[in-house]
Amino acid sequence: MSDETFYLTTPIYYVNATPHLGHAYTTILADTMARFQKLRLGSDRVYFLTGTDEHGDKIAQAAAKAGESPQAYADRISGIFQETWKRLGLTPNQFIRTTSEHHKRAVQRFLQTIYDSGDIYFGQYGGHYCFGCERFYTEKELEDGKCPDHQKEPTYIEEENYFFRMGKYQDWLIDYVNRHPDFIRPERYKNEVLAFLKEPLEDLCISRPRSRLTWGIPLPFDDQFVTYVWFDALINYISALGWPDGEGFRHFWPSAQHLIAKDILKPHAIYWPTMLRAAGIEPYRHLNVHGYWKIEESKMSKSLGKVVAPLELADTYGLDAFRYFLLREMTFGLDASFSEEALVARLNADLANDLGNLYSRVLKLIQRYYSGRIPEWSDEGGLSEATRAAVGDMTAAMERFAFGEALGAIWNLVSATNKYLVTNEPWKLDPADPLTKSVLFTATETLRKIALLLSPFLPQTAERMLRGLGIDAPLASVRLEEALGSGWLGRALERRIEEVPALFPRIQTTAQKPSEEAKRAPTASEALPGQITIEEFRRLDLRVADVIEAASVPGSKKLVRLRVRLKDEERTIVAGLREQYPLESWTGKRIILVANLKPTTLMGIPSQGMVLAAEDDAGNIVLLTPEQPIAPGSKVR
Ligand code: MSP
Predict the structure, then answer these.
(1) For residue 427, what are the contacts with CB-CB under 8 A and spacing of at least 6?
(2) Would you give the end-to-end CA distance of the chain in angstroms?
(3) How far apart are CA 284 and CA 184, in angstroms?
(4) What is the full DSSP assignment across 56-67?
(5) Any residues with CB less than 8 A from the CB of 527 and at least 6 apart, and which?
(6) Which helix (H) or strand (E) is 390 found in, with range?
(7) Which of 165, 190, 310, 403 is the most exposed place for a label (fewest CB within 10 A)?
(8) Is 58 in the pocket of ligand 1 (CB under 6 A)?
(9) What domains can be seen in the chain, in order of their start residue?
(10) Is the CB of 252 inside a 6 Å radius of any atom of ligand 1?
(11) Is the Cβ atom of 84 under 6 angstroms away from ligand 1?
């Protein structure tokens, strides 16, 4: 048996603010990944850590403002984080706090180790200090002499401090990153780090005089100084495992993976590996970096006369719908927009229609035909290929932290199952016909596997789906391979469908008043959710067009203005492809145009159509173009 382990951390969050969507997102991702790895490896081989970062000026200031002692304040806010994670159903193995005794001891031990080996020295430092950011800025970093984040002039401070010889490890780090191409991923962040390392790496100031900052951990070799933010915070990742001697450290550190957003790339990709190197500790395995959520104001909540904080939407629409949206909507590594409308659209299309309808359709048929007893059948060949593909694709995507892609792979299986039913039409068959039995057996077996695959992402839904199928096994003790392989989870139990839970009721929005047509329950021959009819497709007028000229759009880096020729007609199109295709590359390109799109105006320029391009999950975009020469104006069928 392999001794593979999996150790995953989130950033430890500052306690100067209460939890918001960004914190919840990273912690939900980590929770999903930890659940997936537990399913794969067994729960004792997986460790998931989160916590709070509680020292520093900002926190002392926030405490003073709240009229509390720093410790009482940190206790209170850290408690809110812990409560919030519980409310969101997140299950870390440990919640670490930097004010805990064992963490403080580990930080002091770490500092002493590298002080003894000569990598910490005492020196003079002068610089522009921003109290808001709690850091020094170089002249170059300031914008008009002001801190770029706070738009305030920093204070010039000159003082003696302790420094870590980070510069000494620059060449080692560059070499390490080059030799381990997926040390920092996705690649764009590795490239960002390597670009940064092209400039000389300065030593890192790691202390603050006690006279100025008292809310920190004293240096073990000079108690007139306390450690500064990162030298305290980053060490949580090993203090939590009982470094240096703890069994947990020995067991889990070799498989360590960190999960962060792009805002704290530099401390994690540069400070932390060099600190570990100086202390003689192996670097972590992977640093996984995600993008930022931008929050769009919701017209929906606004129409109800209130502004809803994103986290409250978890209560409104349910934990799993909230998780699903976050996991599916953001391509790992890129930014994404959060809006209530987009969440509801995903809920209705993917969860209520695709998954929910499939589930209730199959279970209701079994109730009607066989009084709820799932027909026994040995052959589940009809969907075995699609199942294998979904498991393979989902597992491969999870290896890369591509959560949206992993869900996409499961949804391919949901669609394949829907298609399988439409092809075989069991609702038109005689219940006693062996084909009916085999089709419904195959569909329930596949639904059981879908539930299993979904369990890391939608834990509550997966349990409800399995319970509906007559399976009460606690998911925590199930192992993926076993459960998929022999089907024991399904067959070992006396299964009977008692009631059919509605997994995700459709949300009615004012924007989409149901027509009489839509209210009618779908019949077997109608299109399934997500499908369109050939008539609907024919309404699109897609044409081949030649680009004859490209120009910039004043005030926009992303847009390009194209002049294109169809057969004997020219049009102007504004396309958001400037970043992928520079201006000079456009002329002469043959593209595919949506020719009957309602004209619109972008940045003051009327646009008469839309250019088709394909985008993969990593955000790479390529233009669609005819495979052979063909006249402009040709119709795409
Ligand atoms: N305390 C430090 C981290 C120390 S780790 C050794 C810190 N704390 S923080 O409270 O500011 O949290 C930053 C993290 O919160 C981000 O890296 C990300 O995980 C999450 N997010 C905060 N806002 C976010 C978005 N708008 N979008 C996505 N995630 C974001 O930095």
Answers:
(1) 365, 524
(2) 54
(3) 10
(4) SHHHHHHHHHTT
(5) 533
(6) helix 384-399
(7) 165
(8) no
(9) 6-290 (3.40.50.620), 319-494 (1.10.730.10), 511-623 (2.40.50.140)
(10) no
(11) no
User: CB–CB of 299/341 below 8 Å?
Assistant: yes
CA-proximal residue: ligand 1, atom 13 (nearest): 13
Whether 205 is catalytic is no
Contact 37, 252 (CB under 8 A): no
Check residue 136 and give its pLDDT.
79
What is the predicted pLDDT for the residue at 512?
A: 47
Catalytic site residue 306?
no
Which residues of 115-235 form beta strands (DSSP E)?
120-130, 135-137, 155-164, 184-185, 204-205, 207-209, 218-219, 222-227
CA 131/CA 357 separation, integer angstroms: 55
For residue 136, the cross-strand partners are 129
Known active-site residue 147? yes
Q: Whole-prediction pTM value?
A: 0.79
Which of 15, 23, 293 to mutate to test ligand 1, by most ligand atoms within 8 A of the CB atom?
23
- Residues 618-628, mean pLDDT to the nearest whole number: 84
Residue 470 has pLDDT above 90, yes or no: no
Length of the chain as a residue count: 637
Q: Which amino acid does the sequence have at 145? A: G
Distance between CA atoms of residues 180 and 247, nearest Å: 27
Give CA separation, 129 vs 38, 157, 226, 264, 372, in Å. Answer: 45, 6, 17, 19, 70
Going by CA atoms, what residue is nearest to atom 5 of ligand 1?
A: 11
Q: Hey, CA dihedral for 191, 195, 197, 202, is it positive or negative?
A: negative
**Nearest partner of 97 among 16, 12, 20, 26, judged by Cα:** 12
CB 235 within 8 A of CB 103: yes
The residue whose CA has the least distance to atom 7 of ligand 1 is: 13
233 close to ligand 1 (CB < 6 Angstrom): yes
Average pLDDT of the chain is: 89
* DSSP code per residue over 222-245: EEEEEE-HHHHHTTHHHHTTTTTT
- Ligand 1 mean position, distance from CA 9 (Å): 12
Alpha carbon distances (Å) from 415 to 355, 426, 460, 504 = 9, 17, 21, 17
Exposure on the CB side of residue 334, measured as CA atoms within 13 A = 15
- Please name the residue whose Cα sits nearest to atom 12 of ligand 1: 13
Q: Residue 78 contacts by C-beta under 8 Å, 6 or more apart in sequence?
A: 15, 52, 54, 97
- The confidence band for 519, taking pLDDT boundaries of 50, 70 and 90, is very low
Inter-residue contact 18 to 78 (CB < 8 Å): no
Q: What is the pLDDT of residues 175-212, one digit of tens each?
A: 999 999 999 999 999 999 999 999 999 999 999 999 88
Residues 398, 193: Cα–Cα separation, whole Å: 24
Instruction: Using the CB atoms, write b or e for 505-519: b if 16+ within 10 Å.
Output: ebbeeeeeeeeeeee
- Distance, in Å, from the CA atom of 230 to the CA atom of 61, rounded to the nearest integer, reads 18
397, exposed or middle or buried, with CB in 10 Å at 0-12, 13-18, 19+? Answer: buried
Question: 260 CB less than 6 Å from ligand 1?
Answer: yes
Q: Is 14 in the pocket of ligand 1 (CB under 6 A)?
A: yes
Of 9, 10, 14, best ligand 1 pocket probe by most atoms within 8 Å of the beta carbon: 14
* Alpha carbon of residue 398 to chain centroid: 11
Contact 429, 436 (CB under 8 A): yes
Q: Does the structure show a pLDDT above 60 at 120?
A: yes
Q: Give catalytic status of residue 286 as yes or no.
A: no
